[in-house]
Write a structure and sequence with these properties.
Keywords: Antimicrobial, Disulfide bond, Fungicide, Plant defense, Signal. One of its GO terms (biological process) is killing of cells of another organism. InterPro entries: DEFL. This protein has helices spanning about 1-20, 40-50, and strands at about 30-35, 55-60, 70-75. By secondary structure, the protein is α+β, with helices and mostly antiparallel strands. The protein has a 3-stranded antiparallel β-sheet.
Length: about 80
């Protein structure tokens, strides 16, 4: 009898966990160049957060070695 009760409780627990699991939808990420002329990390982060509630970062422009641009990465709506 105890085995039957334990098996039933285990089965109900598995069903409860399976029903509680929901599909996770990943948010889309967007990016925009805030300043193509140069990048000061503190200013870039501040502007990005204020405008888009995102994360600003300095990335290579690719055109000139050592030149960086301010890129803002944020959640798209």
């Amino acid at each position: 009898m105890a085995k039957l009760v334990n098996s039933a409780l285990c089965f109900l627990l598995i069903i409860a966990v399976a029903l509680a699991i929901t599909q996770v939808n990943a948010q889309k990420r967007c990016s925009v160049v805030l300043n193509p002329e140069g990048c000061v990390l503190f200013d870039c982060k501040k502007e990005c957060f204020q405008k888009y509630n995102g994360n600003g970062l300095c990335s290579s422009s690719g055109a000139t070695i050592g030149q960086y641009i301010c890129t803002c990465v944020y959640n798209c709506t």
